[in-house]
């Protein structure tokens, strides 16, 4: 079973790229972030024609997450991250698909920092850690996939000198991610590539793609039941090089059935 995560950076403007990737790789489940479309502007018809059922939480202009499934409609269990009823940003969607519980998340960017946006990022991360704790011992495999907006270590960025003040690299951001790993979640890409440079994001600025000046900020974290079924993981990096591409590439895992 292949589960992928892809920050599409505008689902309607990049729909041809999305459909081409879906047709070429046929993931069983695809988690999408940054839909940048209100609820009624999600391209459900085109997704269905591609062979996928979908659940989504839209938001005008910003954010938005979706879970696509080739195994029937996703059985939605949550449409928001618990812990703050006042938070109306569309950043979390959770659903069961073919025996796997999948959480699709778009963690706040947090820039500029310090400031309220960074405070919101850290507060959201605390809510994620708390909710992940309730899912960890679930008997079913659990996959928390998405754009975490965190570069976990210096091994996950081409050169950190120009990013030192960025919220993605701050000690507080990294510490929150590390706490999830300390709680027992498995970082699937790092499990598969323990010593290699693996990137999922290349900035549009400064020719990031052509220089392979990448960052790893899209992650798939697995509970023990999912980690025990992990067969492979990777990044479809070539998708980033296509015309009018997102600045992210899809990351994926293969789980044994």
Automatic annotation (TrEMBL):
Similarity annotation: Belongs to the DNA repair enzymes AP/ExoA family.
CDD domains, per database record: ExoIII-like_AP-endo
Cofactor comment text: Probably binds two magnesium or manganese ions per subunit.
Cofactor(s), names only, from the UniProt record: Mg(2+); Mn(2+)
UniProt: Mg(2+) binding residues: 7, 34, 147, 149, 247-248
Superkingdom of the organism of origin: Bacteria
The name this protein goes by in its record: Exodeoxyribonuclease III Xth
InterPro entries listed in its UniProt record: AP_endonuc_1, Endo/exonu/phosph_ase_sf, Endo/exonuclease/phosphatase, ExoIII-like
Catalytic residues identified in the record: 106, 147, 248
Site description Important for catalytic activity, residues in chain: 218
Residue numbers marked as site, Interaction with DNA substrate: 248
Provenance organism: Brevundimonas subvibrioides (strain ATCC 15264 / DSM 4735 / LMG 14903 / NBRC 16000 / CB 81)
PROSITE patterns: AP_NUCLEASE_F1_4 (PS51435)
Domain (Endonuclease/exonuclease/phosphatase): residue spans on this chain: 4-248
Signal peptide: none
GO MF term set: double-stranded DNA 3'-5' DNA exonuclease activity; metal ion binding
Gene Ontology terms: biological process: DNA repair
Membrane-crossing residue ranges in chain numbering: none
Assigned keywords, A-Z: Hydrolase, Magnesium, Manganese, Metal-binding
Sites marked Transition state stabilizer: 149
């Amino acid at each position: 079973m292949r589960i992928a995560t892809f920050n599409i950076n505008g689902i309607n403007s990049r729909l041809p790229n999305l459909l081409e990737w879906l047709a070429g790789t046929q993931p069983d489940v695809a988690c999408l972030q940054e839909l940048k479309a209100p609820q009624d502007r999600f391209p459900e018809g085109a997704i269905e024609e591609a062979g996928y059922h979908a659940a989504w939480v839209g938001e005008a202009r910003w954010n938005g997450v979706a879970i696509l499934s080739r195994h029937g409609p996703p059985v939605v269990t949550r449409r928001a991250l618990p812990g703050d009823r006042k938070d109306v940003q569309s950043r979390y969607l959770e659903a069961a698909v073919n025996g796997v519980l999948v959480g699709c998340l778009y963690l706040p960017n947090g820039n500029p920092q310090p400031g309220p946006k960074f405070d919101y990022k850290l507060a959201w991360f605390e809510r994620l850690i708390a909710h992940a704790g309730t899912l960890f011992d679930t008997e079913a495999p659990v996959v928390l996939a998405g754009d975490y907006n965190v570069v976990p270590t210096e091994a996950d960025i081409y050169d950190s000198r120009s990013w030192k003040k960025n919220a993605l690299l701050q000690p507080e951001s990294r510490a929150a991610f590390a706490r999830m790993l300390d709680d027992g979640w498995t970082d699937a890409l790092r499990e598969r590539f323990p010593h290699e440079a693996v990137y999922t994001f290349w900035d549009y600025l400064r020719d990031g793609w052509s220089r392979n000046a990448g960052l790893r900020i899209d992650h798939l974290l697995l509970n023990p039941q999912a980690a025990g079924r992990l067969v492979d993981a990777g990044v479809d990096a070539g998708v980033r090089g296509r015309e009018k591409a997102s600045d992210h590439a899809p990351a994926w895992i293969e789980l044994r059935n």
